[in-house]
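PROTEIN ENTRY
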Amino acid sequence: VEASFLQHQQQTDLLKEKVDELKFLLEQQTALKEAEQQKLTLYQVKMARLEQELFHHEQSVNQYEQELEKIRDQREEVLQEMDLLQQELNEQQEKRKEVHQQLQELETQKEQIQLRLIKERKVRENAIQRRDSYEEEIRKHQQSRKTLEAEIHEQEVRVNRLDVELNHVLEKLASEYELSFERAKELYPPKEEVNHLEKKVRSLKRMLSQLGDVNIGAIEEYERLSDRLSFLQSQEADLLEAKRKLYEMIEQIEQEMSKQFLEAIQQIRHEFQLVFSQMFGGGKADLHLTDRDQLLETGIEIVAQPPGKRPQYLSLLSGGERALTAIALLFAVLRIKPVPFCVLDEVDAALDEVNLTRFTRYMKEFANQTQFIIITHRKQTMLGADALYGVTMEESGVSKLVSVQFEALEQQEIATTRE
């Protein structure tokens, strides 16, 4: 019994040793498991943190993509505005070219008329010179003729006197000396002075016959050229008067346009300040002319101060603020001069929900006098519409127009409720 007890005791000690070894091994395994569990927990925490960071990065990427899309939309809007401004600039340049072309045509006509007038003046001067020369020659010939006629008359008087004296001498010769003319001629030859006088008389008569008729056509030519000159001078005066009136008309038109533009910009400026304050829930806005001395060529700068910010130019505002400012300016113009139709294309793309609600509410206020046709993808804007039109493609390549009349639906719902 003692031997078996000792043996059993030995076995028990061995089992205790094995149990202790197993406990030690279990404790080691437990420590290893806790260490691995801690590592797993650290890995899970790190993984969760990485997943959180990845989520934040994805959100940032989405925000960046949205901002990039907004920037692209803003860029398209700016390009469209630049195209419109370029078109207006081209129209103004075309108008200026037309006016400039008209002025050039008038200047060309004036130069042509001046050249014609110069030619006609030269012709007139030449005609006047010819007339003066003709008149001078006529005066000289008339003077010469008068001189010759006076000399001829004097010679005729002298001849008559000499005839009388000759008859008296012949009578005296016959009565006192009882001689005839032939006998006296033989006895007393004629003196040389009488022959000289006869030659002079014949020479004067020949010179008088050589003068011929006076050129009466010179006076008619002078009158014709004088009439032509008067006609051209009247044409030149008419053209100068037309040019002056055209310049006066252009100046009056520019003054009236400047006056109307200044009045309109003042009205728009006042309404823009009110509408901006209402749509932004506060703040200030104003319109400034870049050149008040040249109203027809001046630019317009928009200065806006949203609530809680400092005044800035339109280009320095954010996309949503810039879009809402432009919409406020549009409504300010519509308040001054309403139109029957107004088409808006994606104007609400950059607006947040609060500003979109203000835009929709403000648009409904104008619905009684202006019909708005809006192209949009925003749900809030669609809910504020009276009718909704869309295009769907139920089958490939086949488009279908879908329309919804909200007013009719509301009436149906009211009727159903009453039933």
About this structure: The radius of gyration is 61 Å. The helical segments are 2-176, 181-187, 192-210, 217-280, 319-336, 353-365, 379-383, 406-418. The CA atoms of residues 22 and 28 lie 10 Å apart. The mean pLDDT is 79.
